[in-house]
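Example record

The entry below shows one chain as it appears in the dataset: sequence first, then structure tokens.
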Amino acid sequence: MCGAGEQTQELPPGTDLTRETVFAGKVRVGGEPASGAFVRLLDSTGEFTAEVVASASGDFRFFAAPGSWTVRALHRSGNGETPVSAEGPGLHPVEVSLG
């Protein structure tokens, strides 16, 4: 079981986007939310860094360092991944489509 909190688009109180890098978005399959997808954050070398479970509405988020990353989603309906990059702090939207 994942130790991450409930996944929503809403950031936790006190989140300072001038200092923190956040990747947040949705996992979708056929345009619909992929509830319960396992969403993984991989570093620039493809190494596993973190995992969360997407909410019922397909939402997920990661707090990470600036740089190049990959967000990979695994679901009973298919898998998908999206490269993401952040040059600095802020909220960086991510969409992952499963095929």
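Notes for this example: The chain is about 0% helix and 55% strand. The two ends are 25 Å apart (CA to CA).
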